[in-house]
Design brief:
The protein is an alpha+beta fold. The protein has five helices and four strands. The longest helix has 13 residues.
């Protein structure tokens, strides 16, 4: 059974009242945040319930969307702010930071995520 509209609105209000976790990362991959890393990033973000945003300057995008992440045009050296709100926000940001810091070495990050 699908949750009622009222229930969805209540959940959204509750989520917006949760504190925001925030981390800053710098893209060190020589090719930047291109299609493959964006796909790995979004796929990892989807594993979490938290609402996760990636911010470059004043451009905010949904971390769970490959296309949105690609619109950031994050080349090597770009600083991105990751923000998450939800019950697993801290865990989500820790996993995403590990992925970025590993230069998008998905195997290692995904393995840590599965065992963690």
């Amino acid at each position: 059974m699908k949750p009622s509209k009222r229930s969805q609105v209540k959940d959204e209000v509750k989520r917006k009242q949760m504190p925001v976790a925030e981390k800053i990362v710098v893209i060190s991959n020589p090719q930047g945040l291109h299609a493959r890393p964006a796909e790995l990033f979004a796929r990892l973000a989807l594993k979490f319930e938290a609402d996760i945003e990636v911010i470059r300057d004043d451009h905010h995008v949904d971390a769970k969307s490959i296309l949105h992440v690609l619109t950031l045009g994050a080349a090597q050296g770009t600083e991105l702010t990751l923000q998450a709100r939800g019950s697993d926000a801290e865990a989500a940001l820790e996993a995403l930071v590990r992925l970025v810091e590993s230069d998008f070495a998905a195997d290692e990050t995904m393995r840590q995520e599965s065992s963690g």
